[in-house]
Design goal:
The complex is a heterodimer of chains A (about 140) and B (about 400). With about 140 residues, chain A is mainly beta. Chain A is built from one helix and eight strands. The chains are: A mainly beta (about 140), B alpha/beta (about 400). The structure holds zinc ion.
Chain lengths: ~140, ~400
């Protein structure tokens, strides 16, 4: 009688000319970010120009992929229609990870029971394929 | 150049809020109806007529229902006025306080004598158009399952607890105080007393954010009318003057790729408002702080300079009720009175006007002469609120 539940897709990043290098790199298992050649600032999320000095000489730079959990939350409820695809993952952990080079990135903590995630814990990047050819950088305990 | 005394609020209008409209057969009011209703109430309060607004100013706050580029024009069409100046409130929850300064500047410059600030939303009645998310959210938060502001404020709150040692008892005290004020406010939506235990037992939404940390989405409309000092004389109600004002958007304490999210733009715009007003913290009789989430109230109290950062003792000791040394959320705040989308911040402006007129009834702060209100909107990637504004209002200039 009941039809099989449709798989609700999770939102995927829209790949633009500005963000393409980042996603090309994650597909190769590398974490890169823009860095300003004029003032040395990290620029994240990807931008056409440096948010600190306005310079346009931004250089994609490889990161170690290591960092620490700066803040985190356990997601327990879906909010909004666009995110219903995450319902079956609940509860899961989203976090702000401060990378050892400085910039902060928003991601998930994986490979670890949710009640063992702590602020300050050391993590390293792993890449999960979210759709064909699109790899999301996530973090697991190191 | 200062906006001190440049304009006064002369009328306020607030429709009842409701959460109906989601099921077939339930009465539905649209955003347009709430908008017209709130405007009518504000006109009555001020003793003005609709025709007084032809050739004057209209400031319309964008909502998630009506985010089209012509919203101020459509609002004018709905209200049947022909403004000489249209101001568009695009600062989300900060718009209500932001537009107060923008309106005062247009009045001070002599372009208009009156500006009506209108705000309405009916998220439970109208499905609305799909939200257009900024690129950072669309590409670098949503694919990781970040559930909008609930999650983003949870990041901030988790870090705040880690750095400050604040616990659910500290947050709960704010929630309990706001609810106590709501029990004294006939216009509040949630009026049942709330205990600290009930707060702590409310379900986790997004650790460490609990149900009673979160605002109550609602349908509703609000409006307030700003007038030049000359025009404000001899109207129905006593004018409530703008004493100080400031706005700061995309504030970043520290490098933008690694900001301190515990420091909000309120630190900057609050300082500007105090300087303009020429008053000190001790002169302020009550605060109406933007409260889509409880912990944000505490960060603002710190950033406004009422205490140092992470001062647990201050939050444990201070009586924030209307009888206390620093009353906050005197009408119950948005968490109890409801938040009609991005128009929610108008609540604090209107409540401040009521207090300063002495119309607070059972929740009146005795002898209130100066009040401070804030607005916040958007939550930026890895940071805190993107839009912030502060205003200081007074019954006397
Ligand atoms: Zn630069």
């Amino acid at each position: 009688m009941a039809e099989p539940a449709k798989t609700i897709p999770k939102p995927l990043p829209e790949i633009t000319p500005v963000t393409r290098p980042f996603w090309d790199a994650t597909a190769q298992g590398e974490l890169i970010m823009q860095r300003c050649k004029d003032c040395g600032s990290w620029v994240w999320c990807p931008r056409p120009a440096c948010v600190e000095c306005g310079g346009e000489k931004l250089e994609w730079t490889q990161l170690s992929g290591r960092g620490q959990v700066f803040a985190f939350t356990v997601i327990r409820e879906v909010v909004g229609r666009a995110l219903r695809g995450f319902a079956s993952d609940i509860p899961y952990v989203t976090a702000w990870v401060d990378l050892e080079e400085g910039p902060r990135i928003c991601s998930n903590i994986v490979g670890c029971p949710i009640d063992q995630v702590t602020i300050g814990m050391s993590v390293e990047v792993v890449f999960e394929e979210a759709a064909q050819g699109i790899f999301l950088p996530k973090f697991r305990p190191r | 150049m200062s906006l001190r005394g440049a304009a006064a609020i002369v009328g306020v209008g607030e429709t009842p809020v409701d959460r109906l409209g989601g099921k077939p057969g339930e009465p539905r009011k649209s955003t347009a109806e709430y908008l017209a209703w709130a405007f009518r109430l504000a006109l009555e309060d001020a003793g003005l007529e609709k025709k007084d607004f032809d050739g004057q100013g209209l400031a319309a706050i964008y909502t998630t229902n009506h985010s089209q580029p012509f919203w101020p024009e459509e609002a004018a069409n709905i209200l049947g006025v022909s403004p000489a100046v249209s101001l568009a409130g695009g600062n989300g929850g900060a718009s209500a306080v932001s537009l107060l300064g923008h309106a005062a500047a247009m009045i001070q410059s002599g372009v208009v004598d009156l500006v009506v600030v209108v705000a309405a939303a009916a998220p439970f009645s109208e499905r609305g158009r799909s939200r257009v998310e900024p690129a950072d959210t669309r590409d670098f938060e949503m694919p990781f399952g970040v559930m909008g502001p609930n999650s983003k404020i949870s990041f901030v709150m988790s870090r705040y607890m880690h750095e400050s040692g604040m616990t659910a008892d500290h947050f709960g005290k704010i929630a309990v105080t706001a609810r106590y004020h709501a029990t004294l406010n006939p216009g509040a939506y949630l009026r049942k007393p709330l205990t600290l235990e009930e707060y702590k037992n409310s379900r986790m939404i997004s650790d460490p954010i609990r149900l009673y940390d979160c605002v109550l989405p609602a349908n509703g409309g609000k409006a307030y009318i700003v007038a030049s000092p000359e025009r404000a004389r001899n109207l129905r109600k006593p004018p409530i003057h703008l004493l100080g004002w400031g706005e700061r958007n995309n504030a970043s304490a520290g490098p933008r790729s690694n900001a301190n999210p515990l420091i909000t733009g309120v630190r900057e715009c609050g300082k500007a408002a105090f300087q303009m007003a020429g008053v000190s913290h001790g002169d302020v009789d009550f605060l109406g702080l933007y409260d889509d989430y409880v912990p944000i109230v505490m960060l603002q109290i710190e950033d406004l300079g009422f205490c140092e950062k992470s001062n647990r003792e201050f939050f444990a000791r201070t009586d924030f009720t209307i009888k206390g040394s620093l009353p906050i959320q005197t009408g119950g705040g948005m968490i109890n009175c409801g938040q009609p989308s991005t128009t929610g911040g108008t609540l604090h402006v209107i409540e401040a006007v009521r207090q300063l007129r002495g119309e607070g009834g059972a929740r009146q702060v005795a002898g209130a002469e100066i009040g401070l209100v804030t607005g916040l909107g958007a939550v930026n990637y890895g940071k805190n609120f993107g839009c912030t504004a502060t205003a200081i209002l007074g019954g006397k200039t």
